[in-house]
Design brief:
By secondary structure, the protein is of the alpha+beta class. The protein has one domain: Nucleotidyltransferase, domain 5 (2-Layer Sandwich). The chain is built from five helices and eleven strands; from the N terminus they run βββββααβαβαβαβββ. The radius of gyration is 17 Å and the shape is globular.
Length: about 200
Amino acid sequence: MFIGFDYGTANCSVAVMRDQGPELLTLENNEPYLPSMLCAPTREAVSECLHRHWQGANRSEENQQLLRRAITFNREEDIPVNGDSVLFGLQALAHYIEDPEEVYFVRSPKSFLGANGLKPQQIALFEDLVCAMMFHIKRQAEGVLQTSIEQAVIGRPINFQGTGGEEANQQAQGFCIVPHNEPVSKRSSSSSNRLPPVWTLKRR
């Protein structure tokens, strides 16, 4: 199945071509837009859930180190992590509002991709946050379509805002979906990427 995926800063959406036109899929509460939010018991729970329970690929040494630290931390703190530990969209927001002091909450994880001066371990964490969100959206879309998704057109922001905007644009182009490069601009690109079972990001 081929889809178009808009990974937005505020909301995410997925569309398929039907009857010569795009049709948005429902992603949450019968709505086509999923707010770009996620929450988990701890920051480390995101990495453990992604790589241990969702079988996400941890290809880089930084990702592998992050996973080992995450598993150790969650065990030492006696925090159970399973496949339902990470929540998304309005469900994540509602869970965070119930207990903001005990819930790790992230809004607009995509915006991290244009941040300046990131260390390798920070990049690894942001990759896991983005990949977790992408995995959830892929899973939701496949549930609606009742088939696996193998191809997608995915764009990046036309321009990053804030200090060092141009440098951030160049840095964001250093991320790609394994094993094929992402389109440079969602506004102009019509190319597609072959996706693995779990969508993953890596540094070029």
